[in-house]
């Protein structure tokens, strides 16, 4: 199914100095971007599922659509920090534990995997679409793989993240105050701010 994402503006690259294009939108087809351009042109070309002959559903976001954030410290955030379970908040708090606090915990592979999944949810909620590895713990590596986040090595640092037709449908939408409204990986909405 096609999805037309209507936003305030689209920023085609992850560069901070990239100019946002007001009135632009993107069309997603499966896990790829089918089109990027002015909303009215895309609406005319793809229609909506409620209009006769329409093919695309429309999602509207009050923000700027970008390739999303790259997290260069992904390995440290997921393999050198413990993200407490909400049921542990009274005992451990809600922020990630590192150093002596982490060393005091009895960490099993199962616990590392659960921590990584909670850490990944935090990253997705921040608009992260790629992160730097490598990940040496099997449970963490599995969680990263299943999340859909693109893993990069230290040399690339996520440098090639651009929005273009035929490219991967990995992006985030940020509100004017900088908070993430939505994160999309491989065309799937994986985070939506409530």
Describe this structure in words.
The chain has 194 residues and is an alpha/beta fold. It has six helices and 13 strands. The protein has helices spanning 39-46, 74-79, 89-92, 99-103, 109-125, 138-147; strands at residues 2-6, 9-10, 21-22, 24-29, 32-38, 56-60, 64-66, 69-71, 128-132, 150-152, 171-174, 180-185, 188-192. The relative contact order is 0.20.
Keywords:
194 residues; alpha/beta; six-stranded mixed β-sheet; four-stranded mixed β-sheet; 13 strands; elongated
Q: What is shown here, in short?
A:
This protein is α/β, with parallel strands linked by helices. The chain has helices spanning 39-46, 74-79, 89-92, 99-103, 109-125, 138-147, and strands at 2-6, 9-10, 21-22, 24-29, 32-38, 56-60, 64-66, 69-71, 128-132, 150-152, 171-174, 180-185, 188-192.
Q: What's the pLDDT, averaged over the residues?
A: 93
As a percent range, the share of strand residues is 25-35%
User: Order of helices and strands, N to C?
Assistant: EEEEEHEEEHHHHEHEEEE
Number of helices: 6
Structural class based on helices, strands and sheet pairing: alpha/beta
Strand order of the largest sheet: 3-2-7-11-12-13
Number of strands: 13
Oligomer designation: single chain
- The percent of residues in helical segments reads 25-40%
Largest sheet: 6 strands, mixed
> What are the low-pLDDT stretches, counting only 5+ consecutive residues below 50?
none
Kindly, what is the distance between the CA atoms of the first and last residues, rounded to a whole number of angstroms? Answer: 24 Å
Rg over C-alpha atoms, rounded to the nearest angstrom? 18 Å
Shape: elongated
């Amino acid at each position: 199914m096609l999805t037309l994402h209507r936003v305030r503006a689209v920023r085609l690259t992850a560069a901070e100095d990239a100019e946002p294009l007001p009135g632009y939108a993107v069309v997603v087809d499966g896990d790829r971007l089918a089109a990027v351009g002015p909303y009215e042109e895309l609406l005319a070309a793809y229609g909506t599922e409620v209009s006769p002959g329409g093919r695309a559903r429309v999602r509207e976001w009050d923000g700027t659509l970008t390739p999303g954030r790259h997290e260069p410290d992904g390995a440290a955030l997921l393999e050198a920090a413990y993200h407490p379970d909400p049921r542990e908040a009274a005992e451990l708090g809600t922020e990630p534990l590192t150093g002596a606090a982490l060393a005091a915990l009895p960490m099993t592979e199962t616990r590392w995997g659960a921590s990584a999944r909670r850490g990944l949810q935090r990253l997705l909620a921040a608009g992260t679409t790629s992160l730097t590895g490598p990940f040496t713990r099997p449970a963490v590596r599995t969680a990263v793989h299943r999340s859909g986040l693109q893993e990069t090595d230290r040399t690339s640092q996520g440098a090639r993240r651009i929005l273009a037709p035929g490219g991967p449908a990995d992006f985030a939408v940020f509100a004017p105050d900088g908070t993430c409204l939505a994160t999309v990986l491989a065309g799937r909405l994986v985070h939506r701010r409530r």
